[in-house]
Amino acid sequence: MSLLADWLLRHSVVMCLLLHSLVLMTFCFHHAATSCSKNCYCTESESGGKTVRCSNLQLTEIPQDIPNDTRRVYLDFNLLTTVPTNAFAGLTQLVELDLSHNELSELEPGAFRGLGSTLQFLDLSSNKLGNLTPDAFEGLRARANLTNNPWHCNCNLQMAMPRVDLEPASLTGVVCHTSEPEKIGVEGLAFLLAPDIDLCVEMKRTTDVAMLVVMFGWFTMVISYLVYYVRANQEDARRHLEYLKSLPSRQGKSEESSTISTVV
Ligand SMILES: *[C@@H]1O[C@H](CO)[C@@H](O)[C@H](O)[C@H]1NC(C)=O
Ligand SMILES: *[C@@H]1O[C@H](CO)[C@@H](O)[C@H](O)[C@H]1NC(C)=O
């Protein structure tokens, strides 16, 4: 009886292992057949097309094997720090891209190149973005979620705003975390909704003061040099003058001028 139980147990373990590997193999084949990005989870539907979910995978780089017919990509809750140039260039049917809850502090120029004609929604919320880079969004008309980022509101950001191609309402998500100059009181405000604040005026004022200081410095230097020069040459000049006066007045004008030129 115990022998039979033992036999059964041993074989069930083997069976189990076999079954397990069979399941794994099926899974792998399935994986290859539907061509999904490694470790990501893909679904496909008639109406919505292909969706690739790579959420919460501790990714530090954007996967390069996302199928080119994907319509939705979820890369949220990863550890991405940057979006390189042409990161999604092959995905010509992409409608929605979720990059929220990452560590993004930088978007390289042309980061979303190639998505301009199809992309409708871009989620960049809850990242570490501090400054706006219009070159990153070139040609992109999508609605973007830019909230929950530590935006640094300064003259650069103000000048960048009108150059960003995104759907204009997206820019209301740029809420100032810090500002330059510091005491202007825009922290916590959506920068776009505070139109009477001009951060570049402050900047210009600072530049003007700097210019004045520099000019004053120059002026002082020139004056001091002149004073020094005059002082140093005063003695010489006086001696020279006396010499000229002591010349006999009956000597001809031509000789006098030739003496001067010799002295000079
Ligand atoms: C996707 O890539 C394959 C070859 O890798 C190509 O045949 C196909 O046309 C591409 N599809 C799109 C939508 O770009
Ligand atoms: C933007 O993202 C934040 C958090 O990531 C979310 O709470 C908010 O609803 C989003 N806004 C829009 C307009 O989708």
Automatic annotation (TrEMBL):
The chain crosses the membrane at residues 209-230. Pfam families: LRR_8. This is LRRNT domain-containing protein. It comes from the Eukaryota. Keywords: Leucine-rich repeat, Membrane, Repeat, Signal, Transmembrane, Transmembrane helix. Gene3D superfamilies: Ribonuclease Inhibitor (3.80.10.10). Residues 1-28 form the signal peptide. InterPro entries: Leu-rich_rpt, Leu-rich_rpt_typical-subtyp, LRR_dom_sf, LRR_TM_domain-containing, LRRNT. One of its GO terms (cellular component) is plasma membrane. Residues 35-72 form the LRRNT domain.
